[in-house]
Fold this protein.
Amino acid sequence: MKIEVWSDVMCPFCYIGKHNFEQALEKLPFKDKVEVEWKSFQLDPTLESGKAISTSQYFKEKKGFPESQAQQMMNHVSEVGKSAGLEFNFSKALITNTFSAHKILHLAKKYNKANEMEELLFKAHFTDGKDVSDVDVLSSLASELGINKEETKKVLSSDEFDYEVNQDILEARNHGISSVPFFVLNEKYAVSGAQPVNVFEDALRQTYKETESPFINFADQGNSCDDNGCTI
């Protein structure tokens, strides 16, 4: 069973959704049969590349939110995150263009370490207050996964993986995806947003059930016949 997840590094609910999804997956006996593919999405591609601003400044200048409203939103997200076992430090979090971070996600995918890289990027952004567009920051994160720093820097200084990132974004647009996180289960079902663990669990069970059997019975078996005869 394949799960595709569209996400952006600076989306707090993507971080929360990832952990709720993973908690649900851990409960399932077929977890080892589930393939997860992380897809790129940019919430704000208009941000200047190589420039980072504080979260409060972003809400004020780019979104036009009063400081009190912005603070209320950040406090709410922090509380939701805490319930998922995550630490959000919005006073340190830097808003920046995430295209480079997505390039490194695709580099990690090359080594089958996309999920680990996604986790490192979220933590770097929301918990540690690191600039996830910075070459040295991204190179350091990649090296934590055993990816050569020089290869990372080469990717960031070239157009390597630009196509892959843009294809993910185009695919999201073609699917009508306008918000993240967005989970697509076996190219058939969708779960939108940072849903509770039980919602992910139910969706995964239902999708897997259909994967195992071509048909789903929506009622108790009625009168029928098979090669052994008829039952009434």
User: Anything to note?
Assistant: The first helix runs from residue 12 to 26. Confidence is low (pLDDT under 50) at residues 215-219. The longest strand covers residues 2-7. The CA atoms of residues 48 and 74 lie 23 Å apart.
